[in-house]
Amino acid sequence: MIIVFKPNITKKDEAAVLQEIKRLGYRPHIMRGVARTVVGAIGDELTHKSLESLIALFPQVVESVMPVQKRFKLVSREAHPANSTINARGIVIGGRKIQVMAGPCSVESERQLLTTAEAVKAAGATILRGGAFKPRTSPYEFQGLGERGLKLLAKARKATGLAVITELLSEDHAELVAEYTDIVQIGARNAQNFQLLIAAAKTGKPVLLKRGLSMRIEEWLLAGEYVLSNGNSSLMFCERGIRTFETYTRNTLDLSAVPIIKQESHCPIVIDPSQGCGRAELVAAMCKGAVAMGADALLIEVHPSPAEALSDGGQQLCLDGFVALMAELKPFIEAVGRE
Ligand code: PEP
Ligand code: MN
To answer: Which fold has domain 2-66?
Structure first.
């Protein structure tokens, strides 16, 4: 159930309503919007008492009580009609500005990372990506630098002022990764690893949830529900392509996810055209499509020498390629009224 508060209510009134919601057997989740505060009350509506009584009990405070039909309660737009914005180290995702997260697939060395960070920053990226713990299909392939990679990301952040996003691969690393990153990335292979999602939520850092390789949109939204229902309201979804019969591209980038997520959810949507197509020469076109459709951010792999990359060489843009892409994207971004 969703409880909508009247505008300008006091903390004391709010606390009284929350207490009554708990007394009736529900877990309240507060979502503060610009104009209104709403509360998602999670609990079994069949066995618990109705929340309709709140309107009569608190007529000055509660404006309405609405059932949420969707299985994904807190993620749904029904629960939270306005778009949510996420603040990662001062960078706002889901606002007017389309944020670009760029950097190598894997952190490989100090030189590789710092060179890339400086170049992407100069070209207009605001967030540095780079995997320190890598989910590789083969155990014999480069697994990432681990903690040393995290330290290099922190160094690059200090040198450039970029915020950092990196993947969390295991619950065991949750604290460690959260110490170094500004956004926790949950990869496609772990998109339904629910214990990992809970651990990511509990770091308190914004969470970027990739779509699983064969995940339906409803499953993806429900996975996101694990983040919001575990006390973390900073969730963004990231479409990175799904497995289909097509082998011309690495994955099939489902750009329809953008309008669908916008329709179903208040959380920002990010597009990753690099994993999405697996081919550097397709990245620019997919970015333009993503911008036109209303994506809030782009996650793009960039490497100083893609041919020598230790992972995902074929899909990473070179530094000049990224500079050219940013220039090419500008009129598209302006055409949709964004920055
Ligand atoms: C990546 O971002 O490098 C990555 C491994 O992504 P995904 O989980 O989408 O495959
Ligand atoms: Mn990659």
So the answer is: Alpha-Beta Plaits (3.30.70)
Pocket flag, ligand 1, residue 91 (CB < 6 Å): no
Q: How far is the CA of 83 from the centre of ligand 1 (A)?
A: 26
**Ligand 1 atom closest to residue 210's alpha carbon, by position in its atom list:** 9
Reading the block at residue 98, the tokens are 């389309």
The answer to whether residues 108 and 143 touch, using CB atoms and an 8 Å cutoff, is no
**pLDDT at residue 7 in the model:** 87
- Ligand 1 pocket check for 326: Cβ under 6 Å: no
- Per this entry, what is the length of the chain? 339
Ligand closest to CA 187: 1
Ligand 1 within 6 A of CB of 81: no
In the numeric block, the tokens 């006390």 are attached to 231
User: What residues does each domain of the chain span?
Assistant: 2-66, 86-335
Take atom 4 of ligand 1 and give the residue whose Cα is closest.
187
Mean pLDDT score, 243-247: 97
CATH number of 86-335: 3.20.20.70
The pLDDT of residue 208 is above 80: yes
3-class secondary structure, 314: helix
pLDDT in tens, 103-134: 999 999 999 999 999 999 999 999 999 999 99
User: pLDDT tens digit string along 278-288?
Assistant: 999 999 999 99
User: Do residues 305 and 321 touch, judged by C-beta distance below 8 A?
Assistant: no
